[in-house]
């Protein structure tokens, strides 16, 4: 072993400790210069290895690092050169207007200035991962960090192997795929600073969409068009699907709608074709789907069969992905602000608070929902950050047809 071959006169370096501990050199540096920003299990592991190797940090370098910490400089007022220009937005401005809220800060943040964050997704071609990446990179740039995008695919085994391979090679991970199991995620969070997107995991910092604002605005629009019943088309079994249906069902019933449910179908255009066949038999006046792909498949199939959208049936999707505006007619969609999910995740990895920030209209609406007893069960979780949704109105919704 390298430890056994080292001469007694050799000076132990940061790189030696990092290699023996199986972590990045930057992580070892932070253990001795700013341990509060490192997972406590990692701190203990690194210090144990350093003690075994006889490593002693340079007090002068540690003092300089603490005095010149780029993280500390972030709280100072920006210099004039950092102010917003026509070509580059002011990086601090989007953070102040982000509509997400959490009960407390993440407990396992460790990413510091200059670190590398891995954004692990299932599929890079769905248009969703690019939105998350854009938001994450904006916030990471504030501290001189960078975000890399990694596609893990559909396999749970492959995803877990890839995540294991990242240990010691990155300073933090944003997990935006539902492939790994909960037990694996909880164990992984003890080894690597981690934030999970789109599903809550008990004990692990998570950022999830809160559908309430988008749903209540969609249903208010449907009520203005005199609709009285709604059919929800379910996607594959998942936390996101259950969250959307539960929210729709709760708010819909409180607003006097008759709520129906069909599915599940595949969360794809082909799944939408399949759902359209069932819808032609039941003939609802409104359909809300798990995602925009299902909505697009429904619109395409119904149109091909001579059913008019929105004259005969109104269609609303979820996610506001790239397909929604290009279908004929363009699809109204409940928008999931994926860029803000990415921003919130990076802020948690950086150890920053993300307080509840809403525009006045949404804040008033949320207060009214809470007074009616419409709550999100994740609100009370200390590890979950909720991100508000909205509605993007297009031409797929119209007046209820005459019976």
TrEMBL record:
<dbReference type="Pfam" id="PF00356">
    <property type="entry name" value="LacI"/>
</dbReference>
<dbReference type="GO" id="GO:0000976">
    <property type="term" value="F:transcription cis-regulatory region binding"/>
</dbReference>
<protein>
    <recommendedName>
        <fullName>HTH lacI-type domain-containing protein</fullName>
    </recommendedName>
</protein>
<dbReference type="InterPro" id="IPR001761">
    <property type="entry name" value="Peripla_BP/Lac1_sug-bd_dom"/>
</dbReference>
<dbReference type="Pfam" id="PF00532">
    <property type="entry name" value="Peripla_BP_1"/>
</dbReference>
<dbReference type="InterPro" id="IPR010982">
    <property type="entry name" value="Lambda_DNA-bd_dom_sf"/>
</dbReference>
<keyword id="KW-0678">Repressor</keyword>
<dbReference type="InterPro" id="IPR028082">
    <property type="entry name" value="Peripla_BP_I"/>
</dbReference>
<keyword id="KW-0238">DNA-binding</keyword>
<feature type="region of interest" description="Disordered">
    <location>
        <begin position="66"/>
        <end position="89"/>
    </location>
</feature>
<keyword id="KW-0805">Transcription regulation</keyword>
<dbReference type="InterPro" id="IPR000843">
    <property type="entry name" value="HTH_LacI"/>
</dbReference>
<keyword id="KW-0804">Transcription</keyword>
<dbReference type="GO" id="GO:0003700">
    <property type="term" value="F:DNA-binding transcription factor activity"/>
</dbReference>
<feature type="compositionally biased region" description="Polar residues">
    <location>
        <begin position="69"/>
        <end position="89"/>
    </location>
</feature>
<feature type="domain" description="HTH lacI-type">
    <location>
        <begin position="12"/>
        <end position="66"/>
    </location>
</feature>
């Amino acid at each position: 072993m390298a430890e056994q071959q080292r001469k007694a006169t050799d000076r132990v370096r940061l790189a030696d400790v990092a290699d023996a501990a199986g972590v990045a050199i930057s992580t070892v540096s932070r253990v001795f210069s700013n341990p509060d920003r490192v997972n406590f299990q990692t701190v203990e592991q690194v210090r144990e290895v350093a003690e075994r190797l006889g490593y002693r940090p340079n007090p002068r370098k540690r003092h300089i690092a603490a005095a010149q910490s780029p993280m500390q400089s972030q709280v100072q007022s920006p210099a004039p050169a950092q102010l917003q220009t026509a070509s580059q937005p002011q990086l601090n401005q989007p953070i102040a207007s982000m509509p997400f809220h959490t009960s407390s800060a993440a407990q396992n943040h460790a990413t510091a200035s200059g670190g590398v964050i891995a954004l692990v997704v299932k599929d890079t071609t769905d248009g969703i991962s690019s939105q998350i990446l854009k938001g994450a990179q904006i916030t990471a740039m504030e501290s001189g960090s960078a975000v890399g995008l990694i596609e893990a695919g559909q396999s749970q085994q492959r995803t877990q192997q890839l995540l294991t391979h990242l240990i010691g090679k990155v300073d933090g991970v944003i997990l935006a795929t539902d492939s790994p199991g909960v037990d694996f995620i909880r164990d992984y969070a003890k080894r690597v600073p981690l934030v999970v997107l789109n599903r809550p995991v008990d004990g692990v910092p998570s950022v999830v969409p809160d559908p309430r604002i988008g749903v209540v605005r969609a249903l208010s629009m449907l009520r203005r068009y005199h609709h009285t019943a709604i059919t929800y088309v379910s996607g594959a079994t998942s936390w996101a699907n259950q969250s959307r249906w539960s929210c729709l069902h709760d708010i819909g019933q409180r607003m006097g709608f008759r709520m129906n449910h069909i599915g599940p179908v595949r969360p794809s255009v082909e799944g939408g074709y399949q759902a359209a066949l069932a819808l032609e038999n039941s003939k609802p006046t409104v359909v809300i789907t798990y995602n925009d792909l299902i909505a697009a498949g429904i619109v395409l199939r119904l149109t091909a069969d001579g059913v008019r959208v929105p004259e005969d049936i109104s269609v609303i999707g979820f996610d506001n992905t790239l397909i929604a505006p290009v279908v004929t007619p363009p699809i109204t969609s409940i928008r999931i602000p994926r860029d803000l999910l990415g921003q919130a995740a990076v802020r948690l990895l950086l150890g920053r608070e993300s307080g509840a920030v809403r525009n006045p209209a949404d804040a008033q609406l949320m207060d009214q929902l809470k007074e009616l007893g419409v709550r999100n069960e994740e609100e009370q979780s200390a590890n979950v950050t909720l991100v508000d949704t909205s509605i993007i109105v297009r031409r797929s919704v119209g007046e209820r047809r005459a019976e």
